[in-house]
Give the backbone structure.
Amino acid sequence: MTIRDTLHETFSALTANKVRTSLTMLGIIIGISSVITMVSIGQGAQGAIQSSIQSIGSNLIIIYPGAQRGPGYQVSTGRGSSHTLTPGDASAMEQNVANIAAVSPESSGRYQVTAKGTNTNTSVTGVTSAYTAVHNVQVSDGAFITDSDNTNLRKIAVIGPTTRDDLFGAGSDAIGQVIRIKGLQFTVVGITVSKGSSGFNNQDDAIYIPLSAAQLFLVGDSSYVSTISVSAVSADVMTQVQNDITTMLLDRHHISDPTQADFNVLNQASIVSAASSVTSTFTLLLGAVAGISLVVGGIGIMNMMLTTVTERTREIGLRKAIGAKRRDINIQFLTEAVALTVIGGAIGVALGWGAAYAVTKLGLLQTSISMSSVLLAFGVSAAIGIVFGYYPARRASRLNPIEALRYE
Amino acid sequence: MIEIKNIKKTYITGDVETHALRGVSFTVEDGEFVAIMGPSGSGKSTLMHLLGALDTPTSGIYKLDGHDVSKFSDDELAEIRRNRIGFVFQSFNLLPRATVLRNVMLPLIYANVPTEERERLARIALKNAGLDEDRFNHKSNQLSGGQIQRVAIARALVNNPSLILADEPTGNLDTQTGNIVLGTFQRLNEDLKRTIILITHEKDVAEHADRIIHIRDGEIVEDGRKHTKRVIKHEQ
């Protein structure tokens, strides 16, 4: 029996009872389409969270001050409040720790900012030219703060698009305009490219000024910085860089017990991996729920195939009488089961794809369908056909032709 | 040629042994038209199953064209049926959802005959079985009983078998249609020299064959040509 003949027989058998065939297929269609949709939503969520974390900066390690404890004092002033990080720490890192791409010392605070009668309260960060590289900040109009701006204590500002809209009106040209921070005049020299918000922090609502100016004019103390952000050369060396920074800072701050450290080192990779482990568990959960419906669909196939074998007992007897071997009968019924699941799987993939597309179009989430999940769905549906078709096909092939022909 | 030597078949259900055949021997030459006749329970159905290679005997030898079929495995039996035997059943057993041509081609599909060749052979077989060409693409539920049985005969003929085995072929037909079918068998036997074994419980039907083997209680009680053969005039 050739493949063409087998397919011809399968087609005629499946079209003989269209209602039953399509109802049985529906089980597989629902199963496969929900697997595809759920997994794509899960992967979309994972992608969204990862890109949101990545937008803070690439291969980012953030060092911020810990609680300040004087000798003999048991009173903590709260994490991040102490003034333990110095510009010297930043330059020491740059010189002594391997695999660092850029170091950005920062001094930030929230201030009331005014411009021509409008005002807003936003974060003002004193930065160096390294800030753009470490935090993936780009300038759409004008220029970012340069090293000479820092050396010359220039009172200039680069502002985020949201801040510009708040102060000067949406889409207006703010370059060359003057803003007042703490009563001091700063000239706007650049607007950053919009990055969107990440969590509670809107990165578009920010003002960047030279670090030296921030320390001198806003904080009034140029001996410390509020955070130091470090960009490692690659994701692989993050742990090494983090460990080296910790060792070096402990040494510089003369602290022998790491639990007493007056600073914290936060690794972006650990945030990303924590977030992705949450989302992949979530994806697995969704996939498992959808997988259960796939198994139920498979049992539906088996049920239909067993009914078919019983109904067509005489036909099987006749086929055997005119020379069909066990193998021929086996293949015929197995092909029917696999055809049901594969056709159902194809429709399911199309439906799942459509649903995922709809989710994206409705703006709920940027879903992503990988070719691998489509291939997997096809593989799984064919496998379900084989698994759940095996027993009925075997039963058909083992029928005794004499009894099968006599069957009423 | 068919040689049967001392064939016995015993069925065991629980503790009860049923001797369906108690030592049957006969020979059928190529081109013979033989009727096996006996009442129900005589063992003629069992004999039909053995002759049709659907089953193997408990003991004894069955040689079909020199092959000893009695010890064959399931798949070897399937091969013998595919190449050397054509069946005609009382209840026709056509596939209702397939066309006449497709039904007749079915044995050739399992025999791996190329697609183009199948249709040619099926058309020849249908013509030999006496079915009009305008019926070839009908489904079996659009045909009369006599036409259906002729499609079944064509299906039995199509693989050019050594033996056509007809099990009560007129059992579901009225006398007139039955006679047409029996006439078809006679014509196949005379014109195409087909070996035909007809299994029936009716004397009238059996008398259309040249030779009648009477079977009763699992044994042959008579084997001969003493009757007057009923000849059906060819209907062409």
